Amino acid sequence: MSVVEAESLGKAFGRTRVLRDVTLRVEAGETLVLFGPNGAGKSTLLRLCATIYAPTSGSLRLFGSLEREAGTRRRIGVVSHQSFLYPDLSARENLAFYARLYGLAGPERVAAEWLARVGLAGIGPRPVRAFSRGMEQRLALARALLHAPDLLLLDEPWSALDAAAADLLSDLLVALHAEGRTLVVATHDFERGLAIADRAVILHDGRVAWDATRGELGAVPEAYRRITGAVAA
Amino acid sequence: MWSILRKDLLLELRTREALASLVMLVVLILLTFTFALDPDGARGAAPAVLWVTLIFAGLLGVQRTFLVERESGAWYGLLLAPVDRGAIFAAKLVANLVILAVADVVLTLLLGLVLGVPVPAAPIELLLVNGLGLVGFSALATLFAAVSVRLRARELLLPLLVLPLLVPVVICAVEASRIVLSGGPAASAGVWLRVLATFDVIVTVAGWMLFEQLVLE
User: Fold this and answer.
1) 3-state class of A40 per DSSP?
2) CA of A89: which chain B residue's CA is closest?
3) How far is the C-alpha of B59 from the C-alpha of B31, rounded, in Å?
4) Which end of chain B has fewer CB atoms at under 10 Å, N or C?
């Protein structure tokens, strides 16, 4: 079953067309990694999948439905450039708030469990504004995962993480993949991205420039260089 | 809805960003009126001073509640959550209403101190007028603040969008306040209160229904 089905999907902001005619499927349990230079439309595509943006043209089915109702949103988790956290609340207050929004039983207990899972158990009542970027990113990951989403959308998840935290994140994504969750990851990091990918797509100028199957993953950096004219990281 | 309301009030209690700026503006606008108005005519102008001050200061406070979430990206966290987006509107409306009500109490007390407006003979009626006026203002301002907050010229656009639509609230609230503050028969304010209540119902229901479409980008 397709979790994401985009048909001729387009998104424009005013006169600026950010995505054009994108046709793409992501199957259940698959890990799709999106590569592309800045402005290629990766974040916009993820935000469309997250129901934050509405398509300008084409269609986008999530879990087989065109509707964007609460039931669909409940199955999606998002990790973005922004943490979606409240700087003046503590880590525990933030997670408990989101647990309540998702209707989870025992929000305080859920918050404590996730703080422990992302290595922030002893962080205390410090407000999030006092966190380092890496700590905030780990907390954002807990926020995105606490309701056990079927589809996880990650926008540059390894950015601002130190090597140990980035490895921890990669391990966590591999574990989520093994659990059967569907992952769509946008990144510039070829090494980490390709290590977890089942498929990779190169976006360029708002279009799908190349859709690489598992057997073609090794050729992605070279294809990226050829398509974008840039040197792969 | 209660989780969002609780979170908004907790954040405001902790930072006092909206309330502090709102109360400061209320005091400053009121002081400006005090210097500008003839002392003999000041009492008669009190209802207009009350609502003009509340509306201009309130616009700033209402926008602040959205700006905090927009800056941190938490706004997207709310939109992603499996809650009716109309409930987000309702929670924001009530949170803004609470903050505006505190500013209203401060302003009413200051009106007595600075302009010498006597304590009204019918405080319940004054409470009703202020309550109905604030609900209409808060509903309209909350709805448009959610739209304008993502625009660059948000500080300019919010008053431009809201003020023309607020005319019925201003007329009704000022007239009803004038009757109640001057000690007139409360029944004669009835027609203004009914118009205010109708406006409140229309704007609140429309806000609940339209919010989802307005916040989608």
Assistant:
1) coil
2) B11
3) 19
4) C
Delimit the domains of chain A by residue range.
2-75+149-228, 87-146
Q: Could B78 and A52 be called an inter-chain contact, meaning their C-beta atoms sit closer than 8 Å?
A: no
Q: What is the CATH class of A2-75+149-228? A: alpha beta
Question: How many residue pairs from chains A and B have C-beta atoms closer than 8 A?
Answer: 74
pLDDT in tens, A90-100: 999 999 999 99
| Contact in structure between A232 and A190 (CB atoms under 8 Å) | yes
- Give A105's contacts in chain B (Cβ within 8 Å): none
* Cα B214 from Cα B202, distance rounded (Å): 17
- Phi, psi at A212, each rounded to 5°: -95, 130
The stretch B152-160 carries a mean pLDDT of 82
ipTM above 0.90, yes or no: no
Contacts of B68 in chain A (CB under 8 A): 86
- The DSSP secondary structure of A194-206, one letter per residue, reads HHH-SEEEEEETT
**Closest partner residue to A73 among B10, B14, B82, by Cβ?**
B82
- Which residue range(s) make up the domain with B187? 2-215
The model's pTM: 0.84
Number of domains within chain B: 1
B5: phi then psi, degrees, rounded to nearest 5: -60, -45
Rounded to 10 deg, the angle between the B17-36 and B39-72 helix axes is: 160
